[in-house]
Specification:
The chain is an alpha/beta fold. It has a 6-stranded parallel sheet, with helices on both faces.
């Protein structure tokens, strides 16, 4: 328990239901908040919105209407979330972990902390380059709407945190950088001792998430032909990976019980992501396991400078000798930045923000 937590407190924690149920990037962030608050003596009351992990993944794959809506308006609409939250009673303190629930949390609490796993305005902007004329217009309009909302929320919330280093710059000094934890200082992933007779390249992701599914398509259609001369094994894992199309020379592991099963099998992690927003957790996670990363430029958005510089672009990787891979953690600047992504660092920052900004109304 935090030394400064003298009395029991409580908070309403609002999130997507899927993030409460599934250990993807969003789920990891939600659980980190839960653990950190409990360590500070806070009673956490969960409020989930949207579809759960299983039903949500089915609707994303099967609903034509949903696919059309996402084509025109890539960011979730706020009014269905607001309608779902309408019967929920507010509280003295609320922490909203989903941009779509920030407005409700601000209006229905005395003190409010809003957290941005990603900025939905930026997510919509990123989608513009992939769209036709009509879709580009609707994406641009939705980005403008969310940009106004983000500015308003920045001034109205008591605490504003972001997962992305770049999003902190976009929002300004009032926003605090709170990176999603990928590992613990107490259990630093061991360095690999692989001496493979064949190079192994891998991608792990939540493939129910459309930008990751698009990244798989680009990996197979664009990256794989350029990697063919390496005669490497390509390994794919993560939520929804078992439903991906089978491709010769590509091994699909499906969902793995523990990510170290995946990282023990690969020499380089691949991140060919072109869409989406926020921080790419899997880039940091791979480095925390001592696995070098080959990444698209978009995959680097949201990461601090040394970690960005330690990644290889596809062109750089093709010019290098892949059999002489390096452990990125051996760079002092990378190791220091990776420490910001530990569970302990996250808990310390949450405790400082909670005790500094969210304890003013204990007498209410």
């Amino acid at each position: 328990m935090c030394a400064s937590a003298i009395m029991q407190d409580d908070v309403q924690l609002v999130s997507f239901k899927a993030s409460l149920e599934r250990d993807d990037g969003g789920g990891r962030r939600v659980r980190a908040f839960q653990r950190a608050l409990i360590d500070c003596g806070v009673e956490v009351n969960e409020v989930g919105v949207g579809a759960g992990a299983i039903s949500g993944s089915v609707s994303r794959n099967d609903s034509v209407i949903r696919q059309l809506k996402r084509r025109l308006l890539p960011v979730p609409l706020r009014f269905p979330i607001s309608r779902e939250l309408a019967p929920v009673e507010g509280s003295v303190r609320a922490i909203s972990l989903c941009p779509g629930t920030h407005r409700w949390a601000i209006q229905n609490s005395v003190e409010c902390w809003v957290d941005y796993p990603d900025l939905w305005s930026n997510y919509a902007l990123n989608a513009i380059g992939e769209r036709g004329l009509v879709s580009r217009g609707t994406c641009s309009a939705q980005a403008a709407v969310w940009r106004r909302r983000e500015r308003l929320e920045l001034g109205e919330a008591d605490v504003v945190t972001v997962a992305s280093w770049t999003d902190k710059t976009r929002l300004g000094a009032a926003a605090k950088w709170l990176p999603t934890p990928t590992h613990s200082r107490k259990a630093i992933p061991r360095r690999q001792q692989r001496r493979p007779d064949k190079l192994s390249l891998g991608m792990i992701a939540n493939f129910y998430y459309p930008p990751n599914r698009r990244a798989f398509d680009d990996l197979i259609g664009i990256w794989l032909p350029r990697l063919a001369h390496l005669d490497a094994v390509l390994v794919i894992a993560g939520f929804g990976s078992e439903s991906l199309p089978r491709v010769p020379g590509v091994e699909i592991l499906g969902e793995v019980r523990d990510v170290d099963e995946f990282y023990d099998r690969v020499d380089f992690a691949l991140s060919p992501i072109l869409l989406g927003g926020g921080m790419k957790v899997k880039v940091v996670e791979a480095m925390a396991f001592g696995v070098p990363v080959v990444a698209s430029n978009h995959s680097l958005d949201g990461l601090p400078p040394a970690i960005q510089q330690a990644c290889l672009t596809l062109d750089e990787f093709l010019r290098s000798d892949p059999l002489h891979r390096h452990d990125p953690r051996m760079r002092t600047d990378v190791a220091e930045e990776l420490d910001q992504f530990t569970i302990e660092s996250f808990a310390t920052h949450v405790a400082d923000l909670w005790n500094g900004r969210m304890t003013l109304s204990k007498s209410v």
